[in-house]
Amino acid sequence: MAGGIKKFVVGSFDDEKVLFPAVKNVRKAGYKIHDVYTPFPVHGLDHAMGIRETSLHTAGFIYAITGTTTALTFMSWVFTKDWPLNIGGKPHFALPAWIPITFELTVLFSAVGMVLTFCYLCNLAPFVKKHHFHPRATDDLFVMVIECTDKTNADELQSFLQTAGAQEINVQIAETGWWIGRYHKEQKLYKEEKGY
Amino acid sequence: MSLLKYESQLREPLVDGNKNYHQITEDIIRPIEMKPSRLWYIGFFISIALLLFGVYSVYREVTYGIGQWNVNKTIGWGWDITNFVWWIGIGHAGTLISAILLLFRQGWRTGVNRAAEAMTIFAVMCAGQFPIWHMGRVWMAFFVLPYPNSRGPLWVNFNSPLLWDVFAVSTYFTVSLLFWYSGLIPDLATVRDRAKTKFRKMFYGIASFGWTGSTKHWQRHESLALVLAGLSTPLVLSVHTIVSFDFATSIVPGWHTTIFPPYFVAGAIFSGFAMVQTLLIIVRKVLHLQEYITVGHIEAMNKIIVLTGSIVACAYLTELFIAWYGQNPYEWYAFKENRANLFSPYGWSYYLMMFCNVLSPQLFWSSKLRRNITVTFFMSIIVNIGMWFERFVIIVTSVYRDYLPSSWSTYYSPSIWELGFYLGTFGLFFTCFFLFAKYFPVIAVAEIKAVLKTSGENYKVKMTDLEKADAEKFYIDEVAHAH
Q1: Are A31 and A152 in contact (CB under 8 A)?
Q2: A130 — contact with chain B (CB < 8 Å)?
């Protein structure tokens, strides 16, 4: 799936204490932050970037009640309609005895559903390839990627990042989506000469 | 980072040695990039040998039937189910560390959670072997699944604790695996991004699912971890509760007690932490991770061991008291004669269990012993022996003399193939663990980085002040006097 090829200005920070004011200043100056790649979850960064809260947990709740309903309806259908068995003269509709399985299926549906949703939303799967703006974004650098629009002056933006405290600044032209397949040697997916 | 958070200056930092982010990556990922040591090969091949012995033992059991084991009509559940409960109990510590301690915001879990979760998964894999092969005709194992079959369909019995076990254990395995792997993805991406060889680039490229570290992804990742922790917490309690129902819902004297669920859960966490100690004390030494798995971590786990050990002790005594107080002659006989009588055939196992689980962990009330690594290592093994005997006592001493004295069993001891099966699961467990320690980051890299700057700041300030004060004192005492 192609997300389109765009031009980005990339600035790397080595301290989250510098990163936070930088994010604020970049946003104030009206630039569009494409993303900030960090080696670990930096608390409060999502708020600083103005990203809305995730509603993944709501999805988890919906999966959970799906599991509850599946377990209860299935067991009651089996034991009261499809094949009522006399087990020690106990009632066919033996709700207390079904609590363990109902609970387990609730948890199972919720966990599996949430992980699949998480992978779907974040485009995570084996063999998926994405453009990595900096290899040390998973090590010790906080990599701020700013998208260039028609009006953006890339040079101005670079010096702006310099004053904001970025250590390494460069301009990259990259594919924003994900794809399956091999990288080109120079980490380029597309082939310009063929008008891809 | 909030102003409301106050941390005592007594609290030690979670990572020693004033690391920066890059050093953390280096320290934890370097073992993956190096050739394994000779010690690793020796350990790995011993594990493989045990595993093969186990495979052969299981082959004998499948080919010739359950008669290869020394179980009989009276002691139908011998070593086999003892081992099942023991392994599944060991798994519980991993989930406790990763889920319950996450909900309680215990920062120290980050040093040990990854390895403990891996231990959970491998332990549950080992546990699962026992009920499956105990079926005898293992090719019919799928009968436990509720599916529209050609026998009616005759469904499984949803009212049976044994079926609850099927659901509980398989859900537990699935959820633990998802929790573990979703936490691993960012760390595998770290390995991928510094990979030099072709194999590592490919393997970790596939395994890391294309993780980039985007802020939005981290936000979802945090939410996922929190909800999975919230789900795993009641799940882990339910699993051992349901395992205890296998016993508690029957009317066998010695099993038919309401104290079983909390008692089993506490025992599971107790033995699980002991196993975590055994593994991590070796891992931190072999992989040189003493600065990440500090003595503070070991002490914290020892505190949990003494807590859960005392809960278990309390349960043993309550059980004994209730057996007498309940005035059921069968129940009291099981306790008085089969267990507490030292000179009965299995009396020794009851006292061994009491010694290992009740008396020995009490040493950990002393902070000196809690912080002593050698003592901890031996204690962790004693506890696991004790917890194995707890399950043995519960199972064998309850069933070997049933209601009908004519079928009272002669002395039961395992056959070589029964023993081989148990050793085989050790082989499986350690083979998996050796591979894990070689190919995966044994410490959650991203999580350690996240707690690096938020832990022990006041302690560090106190220590610098102390050093400064010492230097001043030294100056006054020694240097000033000399002049």
Answers
A1: yes
A2: yes
